[in-house]
Each structure stands twice: as structure tokens, then as C-alpha cells.
Amino acid sequence: MTAKTAWPKNVIARYLTPGGATVDITERPGYYDVAHPTEHFITCHGCEDTHTEDWGWDAYHDEFGKGPQPDFDASGESALPAARKWAQSHAETCRAIPKPTA
């Protein structure tokens, strides 16, 4: 039985690689000088590969003053499924093991 530990702050999805590393999806500001999230950022903690799924212009600029429009790319489609697809595909094939701590 494995011990359950809390996910790092801002991680919204996590995938496990065969080597025991994790592939994490986070939300972060991707545009210059923007405080709210505008993209999904994916990091493999085994091989350190990264990938970004941008939410598109609407996430950065909302002409109606409603603030960020999360999860949608420039076509109006949700960007989270694409981020999940990339993360899962990478996690299924990455053989890198996580770096030891201390």
C-alpha cells in the first residue's frame, strides 16, 4: 500500500509514468503582465519535458469585462481535454525515473 501525499499547489491533474515519475497539469498566466491563468502547463517530473496548451485570446482579453475565460482555446473549444490527452500520452510512454530527493 502506498502512502497518499498532497499534490503540489495548483496541480489540477496528475498522471503516473511506468518509471514512477509524475506528469502534472497546472494552470498559469501565460501572457505578459496578466495575473489570472491563461494556459495549462504540463510538466514531466521524470524526463523534465514540458508542454503548453494555451487558452487563447479570450482568456487574456474579455471585451465584456467578465475577467478570464478559463479552459478555452482560440476556437472556443476547451483546452483542458487537449492538455489531458498530451499528459496521458506522455505518461504512458515516458520511462524516466524521478530524481531522488536529498
List the strand order in the largest sheet.
1-2-3-4
Shape: globular
The largest sheet, given as strand count, sense and whether it forms a barrel, is: 4 strands, antiparallel
Structural class: alpha+beta
| Strand portion | 15-25%
The H/E string reads EEEEHH
Helix content: 10-25%
Low-pLDDT parts are none
Rg, Å, rounded: 15 Å
**Mean pLDDT rating:** 79
Number of helices: 2
Distance between the termini: 23 Å
- How many β-strand stretches? 4
Task: Give the topology.
Layout: E1 11-16, E2 22-28, E3 39-44, E4 50-54, H1 57-60, H2 80-93
Antiparallel strand pairs: 1-2, 2-3, 3-4
In short:
This protein is an alpha+beta fold and 102 residues long. It has 2 helices and 4 strands, in the order ββββαα.
Task: Please name the defining characteristics of this protein.
18% helix; single chain; alpha+beta; 102 residues; four-stranded antiparallel β-sheet
Report on the structure:
The protein has two helices and four strands, in the order ββββαα. The protein is an alpha+beta fold and 102 residues long. The chain has a domain of 59 residues. It has a four-stranded antiparallel β-sheet, with helices on one face. Strand 3 and strand 4 form a beta hairpin. The longest helix is centred in the C-terminal third of the chain and has 14 residues. The mean pLDDT is 79.
